Structures are given as structure tokens and as C-alpha cells.
Amino acid sequence: MKKLNITLLTIVLLVALSISVFAADKPMIGLSFSDFTLERWVREAEEMSELARSSGAEVIVQEANHDPKVQNDQIENMVMQGADVILIVAEDGAAAATAVNAATEAGVKCIAYDRLIKSPNNAVYISFDNVEVGRAQARGVLAVKDSGKFALLGGSPTDNNAVLVRKGQMEVLQPYIDSGQIEIVADQWVPNWDTAEALKIMENMLTATNNQIDAVVASNDSTALGAIEALRAQGLAGKVPISAQDATAAGCNAVAKGDLSVTVYKDIRKLVPLSIDIALKLAKGEPVEGLQDFSLAELTGENLQGTVPCKFLEVVGATQDNLYEVIVKSGYQSYDDVYKGVPEADRPPKI
Fold it and tell me: Which candidate, 117, 122, 238, 331, has a CA 20 to 30 Å from the CA of 349?
């Protein structure tokens, strides 16, 4: 009997040891999203979760509903739950720095996903080339209208991406402004990249200028779609060129219909697996290759100290001319979604 008890104890200890080893090999990844208002965040959260779990990781997903304090509290909670790595889509890049600094001090790696967090303690910042996004937007509008009265619709003032996008826009627009070819008659940033806010702002711009706006450089699909509704109410939709980014189904459909001049395509199918691959490597203490250090001062235009390891992916401007080739043939959006409501004679053949 005594020998049997020792044998059972040995088995129990071996099982416990194997479970602990298995648990140690199973990293926990936190996904902290600013909001699920934007179509892309919902899609990316689902794809990240599926990919991380299929790679053997545990996943925690939380959404802050546009509240920086709530997001910081959620990140702190993830740390307390034992997260090894946290991917963060920051509502406020400055406010989130507090949570990143605290998490880093607790030994948890933080990845600034698509939106910069203003802290040198970011383990990695991965995004698209946001300056090039702005350039592509400005070029897309100028290809239709290269003179006259222009309005600027910036993104969320708490999102550093909006600053980088504006930098790219102005690199292209400034020579036209300096020569007097273009006059900026309205310029406003849109809180939370919100469609309804953009609609109101565009309505006010049109009222203030007596509808004398020849082109709109808007910073993403949700703001552009709001602006298009304001233009439509004045009979100007499709007549005033306007830019965007994200290549959402609604944005691509607006391009197909001629209401939107360009939406900058950022293939999140590349960003999502990259982010999970980096998260798993950080969790296991493995090196991450292909990163380049950028100073916070360079990334923000502010007097901030420190550097951040970065990886930026390429972007493509999608217009009516290349919409089918770039968006549909790549499988990013479906033919039916992109060309919904477009007369058959104005569509490319469905292959």
C-alpha cells in the first residue's frame, strides 16, 4: 500500500510538472483596442485572435470605447492577468504611454499596433507608411483637380497617425499652395475619425465658404464618407474630388461610384500576421528581425526623447482605374461589395 501511494504521488507530480511546462510554453497575448467603431478594428481583432490561438497562445481582447482612461485600466488588468505581450491600438497615443511604461516596468512587452504610443518603452511599433498614405491621398485629389479652393479634413487629433498623414499631404500640396494654384479655405481635425462628426464639419465648411470648395483632402474612409454626405446634400458629390484611406467595402464602393477619388489601400492581411509573429517572438524572448529605430521626435514632430524599433509596410492608392486589380483581384474586398449599385456598363467584367 505504501509503495502504491508513492507511485500515485510520483504520477501526480509528473502530471503537475508537465502541466506547468505546457503552461509556460503557452504565452498570453493581450489585444487592447481603442474602439470597435471602425470596420477594420473588428476585422483585425478577430483575425489576430484566431491566428494567436491557432499558434498556441491564450488571448485577451478588450475594447475601450474611445476612453483613454478605460484603455489604460484595461492594459493594467491584462498585466495583472499575466499577459506576456500586449498589442495596443491606442485611443490616445500620449495617454497610453503611461500604461506602456507601467507594463514595461512589470516585464510585459508592448506593441504599438498601427498607432504610435509616445513612449520609448514600446517594444515595437508596427504600422503602414503613414506619410506615404498622405502623399497618395494628395496625389489622388490633384490628379482630378490641381487648382482652386481646397478643404482639409484631418484625422483624430489624439492619433499620431493623423499627424503623419497630414505631413505627407502637405509635402505634396505645399508647392501648389506656395505658387497660389491652391488655396486652403478650411482645415479641421475630426475627433475619433468619426463619420457623423465629419459630416457636421463638412456641412459647416460648405456653409462658411458658400459651397465654394473645389476639392477635399480627407484622411480616411470614415471621415470621407461623412464629408460625401454633406457634399451630396448640396449636389456636389462626385463633382468635388475627395481622398481617403483604409479601402473599406464602403470606401471602395464610393470609389467605384465616382464619389471618392482615392482610398489608400493598406493590406491588413500582412499587418495582422506580422503583429502576431512579433508578439510570439517577444513572448518567447526570441529576436525580432527587420526593425529600424526611429526617434520619437521624428515620428511625432514633438520634442520627445528616445527611439522606437519600427516596421512600416507599403501602401497603394486605389482609384477607379486600378480598383479591380488592386482590391478585388487581391481578394481584399469582394466584387459584389465593391461594385454594389454600380451600373453594369460601368463595371469591369466579373472573372
Answer: 238
The residue segments making up the domain with residue 284 are 2-122+268-313
Kindly give the residue spans of alpha helices, DSSP state H, lying in 37-189. 39-54, 68-80, 96-105, 130-142, 160-178
Backbone phi, then psi, for 318, in 5-degree steps?
Answer: -105, 120
Q: Same structural domain for residues 38 and 56?
A: yes
Q: How many C-alpha atoms does 282 have within 13 Å on its Cβ side? A: 25
Express each pLDDT in 247-257 by its tens digit.
999 999 999 99
Grid cell in block for residue 77: 488588468
Report yes or no: 284 and 300 within 8 Å, Cβ to Cβ: no
Whether residues 158 and 257 share a domain: the answer is yes
Q: Tens digit of pLDDT for each residue in 212-253?
A: 999 999 999 999 999 999 999 999 999 999 999 999 999 999
In a shared domain, residues 94 and 192: no
Residue given cell 484622411 in the structure block:
219
Q: Which three cell numbers stand for residue 64?
A: 475601450
Torsion angle, CA of 224/229/235/239, rounded to 10 degrees?
20
What CA–CA distance (Å, rounded) separates 244 from 255? 10
- What is the rounded distance in angstroms from the CA atom of residue 294 to the CA atom of residue 157? 21
Alpha-carbon distance of 160 to 113, in angstroms, equals 12
Q: What is the pTM of this model?
A: 0.84
Whether residue 77 is found in the same domain as residue 190: no
Tell me the Ramachandran region of residue 33: left when phi exceeds 0, alpha when psi lies from -120 to 50, beta otherwise. Answer: beta
Q: Is the pLDDT of residue 177 over 90?
A: yes
Q: Are 176 and 152 in contact (CB under 8 A)?
A: no
- Contacting residues for 21 by C-beta, under 8 A, at least 6 apart: none
- Measured CA to CA in angstroms, residue 266 lies from 7, 51, 220, 313, 318 at distances of 59, 19, 11, 8, 10
245 and 256 housed in the same domain: yes
CATH number for the domain that contains residue 138: 3.40.50.2300
Confidence of residue 2 (pLDDT cuts 50, 70, 90): very low
Q: Residue 83 above 70 pLDDT?
A: yes
